[in-house]
Design a protein that fits this description.
40% helix, six-stranded mixed β-sheet, 9 helices, single chain, alpha/beta, 268 residues
Amino acid sequence: VLPRRTTLARAAASGRSEAQVLAANVDTVLVTVPAGATSRVGRLERLVALAWESGATPVLVLTKTDRCDDLAGVLADLALSAPGVEVVGVSAVTGEGVDAVAAAARGTTVLVGPSGAGKSTLANALLGTDLLAVGAVRAVDDKGRHTTVHRELLPLPLGGVLVDTPGLRAVGVRDAAEGIDRAFADVVDLAEHCRFADCAHEHEPGCAVRAAVDADELPGRRFEAYRKLRREDEWAAARTDARLASERRARWKQVTKDQRARYRARGR
């Protein structure tokens, strides 16, 4: 068995300290985002981080663009949420954008995204025939119902292969520090201008990241999303690495000690 070139994996949904491999040996990850659900950029950022960490190239695909009134504006907003990532709009109903997605699907390509994002419908459009089952979304909340229940590898007409995957509810990160930094390249670039190399971007003087947030040059939501993913990734690593776990316990012990000292000082 040859070693995997790339591995797209998320933290196991069970919460155990292990990874769940979604696809292996892929070259392109098509991260699907349905029009009307673009406000949920947190999941998008997680998927982009996992795609970068895998060693493949992520591509953002806005599906169901026939329902979008301001397509150019939505695509521009998505581009801000994923700097350095190609963003493509597509409507499997009208056929608009299918050629652009086909051009972006280089080598072995995997489709990832939530249920109801139109992955299987898009896959059928790329394949040129209805090979995969599709289902309607609920009218109440526009959510899908897991029509795809297994992964399937299919050859594309113009070369390469396509992997269709079930919809993802939870997208946990694990061992994805490099991918997170690439997904949040704008935050990382700002951090290089901080006064201190080990700046935690909290209350340190000369913090370029905090200054950018205060000046509305960097959205506060995006900065907090970056910090959250880094904490989640560090926590997952500490569960399997004894040294990291020890360092984490030591930090919390010091935090508790400092807090008790402040309470005693107030009592005086």
